[in-house]
Amino acid sequence: AQTVTQSQPEMSVQEAETVTLSCTYDTSESDYYLFWYKQPPSRQMILVIRQEAYKQQNATENRFSVNFQKAAKSFSLKISDSQLGDAAMYFCAYRSPNNAGNMLTFGGGTRLMVKP
Amino acid sequence: GAGVSQSPSNKVTEKGKDVELRCDPISGHTALYWYRQSLGQGLEFLIYFQGNSAPDKSGLPSDRFSAERTGGSVSTLTIQRTQQEDSAVYLCASSLRLAGSLIYEQYFGPGTRLTVT
Hints:
The complex is a heterodimer.
Chain A: E1 3-5, E2 10-14, E3 19-21, E4 24-26, E5 33-39, E6 46-52, E7 60-61, E8 64-69, E9 74-79, E10 88-95, E11 105-106, E12 110-115
Parallel strand pairs in A: 2-12
Antiparallel strand pairs in A: 1-4, 3-9, 5-6, 5-10, 7-8, 8-9, 10-11, 10-12
Chain B: E1 5-7, E2 10-13, E3 19-24, E4 31-37, E5 43-50, E6 65-69, E7 75-79, E8 88-95, E9 107-108, E10 112-116
């Protein structure tokens, strides 16, 4: 079974600065999908960014980008120009290509605080 | 359009009572998922419905947990004889399987916070 680990329970960043959230995973599969979700206090999970393992190019969505290191099984999220609205829980998630149900395996989450 | 909705938003129940949690997926979405988010932990998969197929119940933690999806739309998660360890946020998600796509984005509801006293 796959596991996803987020080693940083909490992170703090100054507004307008850059922060990187870490995620590692364990899998024996060669092709899979990785995701970062944001969960604000409203509890509603929002997809931030996704990465297909067969793509070497790191995914980017505006201020959000990933550093995908397949050999190291690492999938970190970089948030540039941090804004107060970025404060939330961030979850890394894995999906197997053999998973017909599309279920996600989540890490334990990182709470991001943004200081004004 | 409307997103995934869940009710109630919060539920407090006494140990040993049964509870029902409701999820209304996005209209037209064929897949529906239930996840549980315990305090300080990530989300764990509970159960998955896809169309008229038999649900994947592999994530249900015990036989006290069950779920149904009526008419391919609304789903109810039932927890019988609740225990304190059942206290958690229960999240529902739905997705639309796109032809030719291998990635089906899941849209989450706001969850139900269950507290068992």
